[in-house]
Amino acid sequence: MRGKTKFLVIIAVVAILVAVAAVWKKDHADIKKDEAGQEKIKVTAIKVKEQTITEASHVTATVIPQERVKLASKIMAHVEKIYVREGDSFHSGQLLVSLDQREIVAHSDQARAGLEQALKAVNAAEAALEDIAAAKKAAEASLANAQSTYERIKKLFQAGAATTQDFDNATERFKATKAQMERLEAQEQALLAQREQAMAKVKEAQASVEAMAIQLSYAAINAPFDGYVVQKLAEEGDLVGPGQPLLIVDRPPWRVEAAVNEKYLQDIHLGDPLKIKVDTLGQEITGRVAEINPAVDPVSRTFKIKIDLPEKNGAKPGMFARVYLPAGLKKGIVLPEEAIIKKYDFSGVYIVDAEGTAHLRYVEPGKKLKDGIEILSGVNPGESVVIKGAESLADGMQVEVDYH
User: Fold this and answer.
1) pTM higher than 0.90 for the full model?
2) In 3-state terms, what secondary structure has residue 391?
3) Scanning 108, 131, 239, 245, which has its CA 20 to 30 A from the CA of 124?
4) pLDDT reading at 28 higher than 60
5) Do residues 240 and 79 lie in contact, with contact meaning Cβ atoms separated by under 8 Å?
6) Alpha carbons 119 and 3: distance in angstroms, whole number
7) What is the SS3 assignment for 393?
8) pLDDT band for position 37 (50/70/90)?
9) How crowded is residue 6: how many other Cβ atoms within 10 Å of its Cβ?
């Protein structure tokens, strides 16, 4: 019985050793030794080559209105009523805010009363001028008669055919009618001056009435265009003065504004279609370049563009957006993502030299592309880079390379 047990123990030990050997062989199948007995790890590598890279990029942008306006009061008055709330839409000509009109109405009534009084003065002067004209007409006839009689009696008197009394009477009558005519002419001149003064007062009163009408129109703040209320800057009952903003409103259609690197200045033109993604909406839309400011900011080395969005796109002013710029072509190096080793905040790859030694070299990765990661610096064309098995390496290890 004891012999049988001993035999079973030996069988079990042998089985365990076989299993361990099998696992070790599997785990070290890629490890070989060189002639000096140093272990070599089998890796897959590629020869670095430059390739053509499509340089597509985007810039961040903000949705803005075509126009943002502050609607301000033009008069000193209390806010009587605000008819809109923040976020409301409105139509051109719609009443948005009304101001207290009572003081303006009182001044307007006073101006109209002044106008009526001035018009009455003009009418009175013109009526008096009509009377003077009639009186002058009669006086002219009397003067002509008196002058004719005077000249006839004078000749008779000089010929001795008329008495001194007749000549004196004719002379007095001629002088009297002439003096009356002069008085009428003086009165006419005075009335003409009076009428001119009255007409000047009419113009002044008309200007006051028109000014009050304008002031009255200022008491109603109407929408200058179709748009949206962004912010209320006053409340009902507030006393506001000329130039004080009451509402901030936006005028559609919406646009996006972006600062673009100066290298794209010659590639973007007015009317060009550009893809835009508004992150909140989660969709791409196509807009057209509406404005280009070619002045380059000397600090950021960018210039600004504005792109019109299509109507009914769902975007709102202030939303974050991305503008995709025209793609260009350039030469560069692209490595598979698995070739890049991340160590802390650094990125590196293993370069295999001519003696089969792996060296860890830090690189500067660029954009992630469809077929790998762009490498901006750290690797040169013609070098061998490990793309499989790098996770088992350490700097200075000997490797057996299988080129891909």
Assistant:
1) no
2) helix
3) 108
4) no
5) yes
6) 146
7) coil
8) low
9) 10
Nearest C-alpha neighbor of 322 from the set 285, 367, 370, 368? 285
H helices within 160-260, ranges in order? 164-218
Domain annotation for the chain: domains and CATH numbers: 30-55+330-403 (2.40.420.20), 103-217 (1.10.287), 251-328 (2.40.30.170)
218-261 residue pLDDT tens: 999 999 999 999 999 999 999 999 999 999 999 998 999 999 99
Q: Is-contact 231 96, C-beta < 8 A? A: no
The two beta strands, 320-324 and 384-388, are unpaired
161-178: average pLDDT: 86
Place of tokens 């005028």: 251
pLDDT classification of 38: cutoffs 50, 70, 90: low
User: What pLDDT is stored for residue 234 in this prediction?
Assistant: 95
Output the six-digit token pair for 311: 């109507």
Amino acid at 283: Q
Q: What confidence tens digit (pLDDT) does each residue in 130-155 have?
A: 888 888 888 788 888 888 888 888 88
- pLDDT of 20 reads 31
Residue showing tokens 């690197």:
261
Q: Which helix (H) or strand (E) holds 46?
A: strand 39-47
- Side-chain-facing half-sphere of 391: CA atoms under 13 Å: 3
- Of the candidates 198, 32, 206, the residue with the CA atom closest to the CA atom of residue 123: 198
Q: How far apart are CA 52 and CA 327, in angstroms?
A: 12
pLDDT for residue 2 is more than 60:
no
Alpha-carbon gap, residue 93 to 231, rounded angstroms: 19
Place of tokens 């003096």: 179
> In which residue are the tokens 């089985």 written?
15
Give whole-number Cα distances, 400 to 43, 146, 246, 396, in Å. 6, 148, 78, 13
Would the pLDDT of 13 be above 80?
no
Nearest by Cα to 396 from 23, 40, 27:
40
Q: Is 371 helix (H, G, I), strand (E, B) or coil?
A: coil
Tokens representing 170 are 């004719």
CA distance 46 to 236: 75
- CA dist., res. 10 & res. 4, Å (int): 10
The pLDDT value recorded for residue 336 is 93
Please give the full DSSP string across 303-351, using - where no structure is assigned: EEEEEEPPSS----TT-EEEEEPPPEEEEEEEE-GGGPEEETTEEEEEE
pLDDT at residue number 115? 85
Q: Which amino acid is at 290?
A: A
Name residue 18's amino acid: V
